[in-house]
From TrEMBL:
Keyword NAD recorded: yes
Cofactor(s), by name: NAD(+)
A family per Pfam: GDP_Man_Dehyd
EC class name: lyase
GO molecular function terms listed in the Swiss-Prot or TrEMBL record: dTDP-glucose 4,6-dehydratase activity
The protein's name in its UniProt record: dTDP-glucose 4,6-dehydratase
Catalytic activity: dTDP-alpha-D-glucose = dTDP-4-dehydro-6-deoxy-alpha-D-glucose + H2O
Keyword set includes NAD: yes
Gene3D superfamilies: NAD(P)-binding Rossmann-like Domain, UDP-galactose 4-epimerase, domain 1
Species this protein is from: Clostridium yunnanense
Sorted UniProt keywords: Lyase, NAD
The family this protein is said to belong to: Belongs to the NAD(P)-dependent epimerase/dehydratase family. dTDP-glucose dehydratase subfamily.
Domain of life: Bacteria
Length: 350
């Protein structure tokens, strides 16, 4: 039995990871530490509500006493740190909380893991700290080329800068203490349980409600889209078999301009749900400050070393995603109304 401390496991990617792992393995226990900020939603975890291998703890990754208690109580083998403030636009308005959660929270987790795992002659057997990072730490690309693991970090937004700061602290724990760590840097995820402040669920929600579809600048910023389940699979592989001290880039081979995404969502909803939804809903708005032009990832290292590749093409993934939101309209309503808090009562606690 392996015990994971998953942080941020009530958020978008974290909850997908918890569900993926508990479905895939019988010999995995997950202690899920999440502060339940506006982005954390226990309704995402209702399928594992009765599962004794999932222990939910509401709390802050910056809380040294609590994290220490979790290490003592549950004999943690792996930490997978998803917990973060994750929205670039919010980071432009409120940078402090990004520095606090993303940098100081990571340092607290590293430190508590070190205290629990360090032995006189090295480290407890089989332990690993894994940091979930982002391709945004590399900055912005021109029309050609890809981010490699060796690309120097050049973050621009307070969000990406805080994630880069966290990555450097993880590296420091490897370089200084030889702590067994790995980092993955992934491109934009999409899929079920995505909070509707992010592009794809926002578009779907707004289309269904006949609201404007805001598009930054000229709409030609490019992102590389990764289906969330492919990301979960990559993290699982890196935690188990990735080389200690290494960074692995995870990308979807699915580069699209923002306006292409907008038009794809409109077309699917127009053709399948509501023919009154048209491109007339598109509204170009003032560009985001410091908006990175293009992100692109070459996931060659993870493919060569671990055999991972993105199984879900964008054409398949986007239809699956839109269909999921159509089938889970109540989820969207609950998330946007704050109703989801009622699920809290039913979850396991320490
Ligand atoms: N979504 C993407 O496309 C993407 C891409 C690259 C990297 N990432 C990284 O993946 C991770 C997860 O992203 P996401 O999109 O699922 O984010 P999210 O915003 O949906 O979820 C974040 C979760 O962390 C929790 N949290 C926030 N502060 C906390 C704290 N102090 N203590 C404990 N829990 C806290 C929130 O309650 C929430 O459940 C983040 O580290 C993010 O930087 C995301």
């Amino acid at each position: 039995m392996k015990t994971y401390l998953v942080t941020g496991g009530a958020g978008f990617i974290g909850s997908n990871f918890v569900l993926y792992m508990l479905k895939k393995y019988n010999d995995v226990k997950i202690v899920n530490l999440d502060k339940l900020t506006y982005a954390g939603n226990l309704e995402n975890l209702k399928d594992v509500q009765e599962n004794p291998k999932h222990i939910f703890v509401q709390g802050d990754i910056c809380d040294k006493e609590l994290v220490t208690e979790l290490f003592d109580k549950y004999d943690i083998d792996y930490v997978v740190n998803f917990a973060a403030e994750s929205h670039v636009d919010r980071s432009i308005k409120e940078p402090e909380i990004f520095a606090s959660t993303n940098v100081l929270g990571t340092v607290n987790l590293l430190n508590c893991a070190k205290n629990a795992w360090e032995r006189e002659n090295g480290w407890k057997d089989g332990v690993r700290y894994h940091q979930v990072s982002t391709d945004e730490v590399y900055g912005s690309l021109g029309d050609t080329g890809y981010f490699m693991e060796t690309t120097p970090l050049d973050p621009h937004s307070p969000y990406s800068s805080s994630k880069a700061g966290a990555d450097f602290m993880v590296k420091a724990y490897f370089d200084t203490f030889n702590m067994p760590v790995t980092i993955t840097r992934c491109s934009n995820n999409y899929g079920p349980y995505h909070f509707p402040e992010k592009l794809i669920p926002l578009l779907i929600n707004n289309c269904l409600n006949h609201k404007d579809l805001p598009v930054y600048g000229d709409g030609l910023n490019i992102r590389d889209w990764l289906y969330v389940e492919d990301h979960c699979k990559a993290i699982d592989m890196v935690v188990r078999d990735g080389r200690v001290g290494e960074v692995y880039n995870v990308g979807g081979h699915n580069e699209r301009t923002n306006i292409q995404i907008v038009k794809t969502v409109i077309k699917h909803i127009h053709d399948n749900v509501d023919e009154t939804v048209t491109e007339d809903l598109i509204k170009y708005v003032e560009d985001r400050k410091g908006h990175d032009r293009r992100y692109g990832i070459a996931p060659d290292k993870i493919k060569e070393e671990l055999g991972w590749y993105p199984e879900t093409t964008f054409e398949v993934g986007i239809v699956k995603t839109i269909e999921w939101y159509l089938e889970n309209r109540q989820w969207m309503e609950n998330v946007t109304s704050g109703e989801y808090q009622k699920y809290y009562e039913k979850m396991y606690t320490v």
